[in-house]
Structure formats: structure tokens, C-alpha cells
Amino acid sequence: MLWSTNIFKNSIQKSFQDVRTQVARLNAFVQEHIQGMSVVQIFGREAQEYRKFQAINREHRKAHIRSVLAYSIFFPVVEILSAISLSFLVWWGVRDVLAGVATVGDIFAYILFINMLFRPIRQLADRFNVLQMGMVGSDRVFKVLDTEAHIPDEGGFPTHDLRGEIRFDGLWFAYEDADFVLKDISFQVKAGTTVALVGATGSGKSSVINVLSRAYEFQKGTVLLDGRDIRDYAQRELRRSISVVLQDVFLFSDTVHNNITLNDPSISREAVMAAAKEVGAHEFIIRLPQGYDTEVRERGSILSVGQRQLISFIRACVHNPRVLVLDEATSSVDSMSEQLIQQATERITKGRTSIVIAHRLSTIQNADQILVLDKGRIAEHGDHQALLAQNGLYRKLYDLQFR
């Protein structure tokens, strides 16, 4: 009985792990295709995607069948062992009764004892289903909880007196092993000035931002903020001092006000409205059905791309960062929205240290310094006019866009 129970335990654990894995695949597929429903419909991929869903569902069904098969084998084994125990008991018991060693009452007592032994085992196997599913599910959760952070947070230096001076000195960074995407990057941004990063896709522009905000740990070199290594600052404090406006704006299914403040009670409605007026977004917000209390729905679906981008500018402005990062903020908007965003950029970068990543060179011509990245290295640097005079990569990018 112990041997068969051990085999059953191992078999059912493996089958439940397969079930949970297939459920995760099924849920991920469904969620992804609900969000990307319009893409599937536009390209007429309904039939193909449905076949992929059927294939995943078949694997899910097979995993369930394997778990049912384990029970269908284990329960008969328990019944057979119970029957064998009774048969041996009767065989030996009758001999002992005839020999005068035992009584008929002893035989009935032991029959009850056998039922008292095997019935809880069968009931335990029924409960084993719930227990194993809980163990498999908790194992997946604990693996996530036990994952160690790759970026140590050992700094404790405060950031309330930051001026915003940034310096990269001989920085080397790779996402994996020694495949460096940033190679010997060195530059300095004075407090309150604007530096622009330009270059081809994959040249390492966004990686500079990832390193500065400590989204990733760099391998060699130093990054200094106000003359102090960024690892000396607490991560939470450092990130509160750096606001990033991304190309793909993420809005929560909440009100406009809460998406701007991120539910920070210390930011008042007046401060939000003042920031919206500074950015130039106040007019379109008050025209919404409930103004600042309008629910924007999932990922801000009731707003246009330009409006979502302006909301992200207000969010960055109202948190009053010392360092502002704009990552391709105008790459996916129309000309009218681009003009509003350019005006918002000029207003919120004034007096702040700003790093602007842009493909549209028209948005960064007034930057104090422009860095041209090529294959992870700084190929050129200077202001707009100086770079045009060099007839290098920047001049080539400029001619491609304007001529």
C-alpha cells in the first residue's frame, strides 16, 4: 500500500504540474489575443489563431486526462488491496477459529479494522487532488517570491538636494554576458541643461536611460549624479528624482487625476491643474465628460495617442523631478499633437536637467548638447550647428529627414 501510494503521489504531482503549465499557456494566449483582437481581425487570422488555440487546449486536455488516469489506477489498487486483505483475514481467521485460537467476534473486529484502515486512505486520496494543486500552485508562487533581485539596493544617500548634474565615465553595459550594447560611453550633462541622444535603431539610446534609472546594472565604468555614484542613492529615492516619459504611455483603468498622481495623496488637484495648464493639456481634459474625474478605461482607450502622451507629460511634471527623460515622445503622434508635445517639452524641460531621445531631429535642434550614437559608441557630439558643419552621421540623418 505504501509503495503504490508513493507511485501515485509522484505521478499525480507531475500531472498537476503539467496541468498548471498548460493553464498558464492557455490564459496567456487568451489574454494576448483579446488585447490584440483588432490585429487578428485586420489581417484575417481568425482561423489560424483558432487552430493554435485548439492545439494549446488539446495539450491542456491531455494533461487533465493524465491526472484522471492516475486516479483511475490508484483507486482500484486500493480496492484490490482491501479485498486481498479481507480474503487473507478470512482464510487465516477461519483456521484460527477452527483451531480454537480465535473467536468469530475477533474475525468481525479485524474486518472492521481493515475498513477503518483503507477508507481513510481512499478519502485522503480524494483530498490529495486539492492538496497537490495547492502545492503545485504555491511552488510557482514561491519561485517568483524567492527570486533574488539582480540590482542590489545598498545605497542610502538622500536625493532632496539634487541639482541634476549627470556624468557618464567609461561606461560599458551588456544585457547578456559580454555582448556590450554600450561601449566606453563618456559624457557630461550640466544641471539644468538639455542633452539629446540620436542615432539609428539599436544604437544604444534607450540603454543609456535604463542604466541611469537603474533598471539594469552596468558592468564597467561609473555613472555619477551630482558627483556621487548612482549606486550610493537608494533606488526608490533615485527613481523618484528621475521622471521618464516613454514612447508607449501606460495608463491605468482609473480617472485622469489618479493616472497623473498615481494615487499620491500629497499631490493636490490644484497642483495637477497647474501642471496641466503648463503642459497645455488643461483644455482637452476639461472637455472630457467628467473632466479630471473621467475614467480613461483600460490603457486609456478613450483617449487618443497624443492625449495619452500629454497625460504622461503632466504626470512627469507634477512629480517635480530634477532629471527628466523623454524617450521618443513624439514618434507616434500626428503633426497637431506633435506641436502640442513640443510646446509641452519646452515648458517642462525649462530649468531641469533633461535627456531627450528622438528620431525627429526637428524636436531637438535647440538642445544644449547632441550626442550621436552609433553601434553603442558616441560617434559625434556638439550642438546642432556644429554637428551639421562636421558632415558626419548627424548631417546624414538631417539630410535624410529634410532633403
Describe the structure.
It is elongated and about 115 Å long. The protein is of the alpha/beta class and 403 residues long. Helix 11 links the parallel strand 7 and strand 8. It folds into two domains: 144 residues, ABC transporter type 1, transmembrane domain (ABC transporter transmembrane region fold); 237 residues, P-loop containing nucleotide triphosphate hydrolases (Rossmann fold), CATH 3.40.50. The strands form two sheets. Strands 6-7-8-3-9-10 form a six-stranded mixed sheet, with helices on both faces. The protein has a four-stranded antiparallel sheet with strand order 2-1-4-5, with helices on one face. The chain contains 13 helices and ten strands.
Radius of gyration: 33 Å
In the CATH scheme, what's the topology name of the largest domain?
Rossmann fold
Shape verdict = elongated
What is the number of helices? 13
Strand order of the largest sheet: 6-7-8-3-9-10
Mean pLDDT: 81
Specify the structural class: alpha/beta
CATH-assigned homologous superfamily of the largest domain: P-loop containing nucleotide triphosphate hydrolases
Can you name the CATH architecture of the largest domain?
Answer: 3-Layer(aba) Sandwich
Order of helices and strands: HHHHEEEHEEHEHHHHEHEEEHH
Summarize the amount of helix as a percent range.
40-55%
Strand content: 5-15%
* CATH class category of the largest domain: Alpha Beta
Count of spatially separate domains: 2
In this structure, how is the largest beta sheet organized?
6 strands, mixed
Low-confidence stretches: none
Topology, number of strands: 10
